[in-house]
Write a structure and sequence with these properties.
60s Ribosomal Protein L30, Chain: A, elongated, disordered N terminus, disordered C terminus, YlxR
Length: 251
């Protein structure tokens, strides 16, 4: 039987960028772009659409906060933006986290509109056992036994019993996940397309890496369950407004 794990390998090459803080190189899909608003505010540009020069970071929130406190971020941004006048918002780490969360949930919503998402235990179980499941996610308040049964069906469908493969528990409750997908009472989410799973995993990996403490591996393999559970107050927040401002500037 086909193993979907192999199908979610990197399907396209992404240009590399260098983190201005760590100086490490990586795919731009795994980094976060910072851009300047017309007023000179440094804001997250997670879709990398804003015009002009940008600066890329690949650190966690804790590392970004440390860099801000020590003045390292200010110096790195001054070099990246060639001495342009800029202001670093005191809440930049929260703006980045909110923007990454919004982007990740929007990505799941887009995949749902494209028909690549299945929800509900019965539908996911069927897709998993037939070998058509490429990624599996759970709301933070999902019951462990329900998540475990779907993971078992996934392992059966991929001839991978005993591997420990399981879905990824997202740091959002079912209420937020339901809003993102435009459905009611979404507890478990399955993706039935390899490219859709890759796109979703890219967005989720950036978000969970930033909030820490550890990045996650590919969603179709055994993920880390150690990501912190931040508070989520809604879909429209300061981080979203910051991204919107940059988007408007680019149009």
């Amino acid at each position: 039987m086909r193993n979907p794990t192999n199908d979610t390998a990197r399907l396209t090459d992404s240009p590399e960028r260098s983190c201005i803080l760590s100086r490490e190189h990586g795919s731009r899909d795994g980094l976060v772009r910072l851009a300047l608003s017309p007023d000179g505010d440094v804001l997250p540009d997670v879709r990398a659409k804003a015009p002009g020069r940008g600066a890329w970071i690949g650190v966690s929130r804790a590392e970004l906060e440390t860099a801000m406190a020590k003045g390292k971020l200010k110096g790195a941004l001054a070099r990246a933006f060639k001495g342009a006048a800029l202001t670093i918002p005191a809440d930049l780490p929260q703006l980045v986290e909110d923007a990454l969360r919004r982007h990740a949930l929007d990505r799941l919503g887009l995949e749902a509109k494209s028909g690549f998402v299945v929800i509900g235990g019965t539908a996911i179980d069927k897709a998993a056992r037939s070998g058509r499941l490429y990624a599996l996610y759970h709301a933070s308040d999902a019951a462990p036994d329900g998540a475990g049964k779907l993971a078992q069906a996934w392992r059966v469908g991929t001839d991978d019993e005993g591997s420990g493969r399981k879905g990824l528990a997202l740091p959002v409750p079912r209420t937020i996940l339901s809003l993102a997908l435009g459905r009611e009472n979404v507890v478990h989410v399955g993706l039935t397309d390899a490219r859709a799973a890759q796109r979703a995993n890219d967005a989720l990996s950036r978000w969970l890496h930033f909030i820490g403490p550890e990045p996650i591996p590919a969603a179709c393999e055994t993920p880390s369950q150690g990501a912190s559970t931040a508070q989520f107050s809604g879909m429209d927040d300061a981080g979203h407004m910051g991204v919107d401002q940059l988007k408007q500037d680019s149009e």
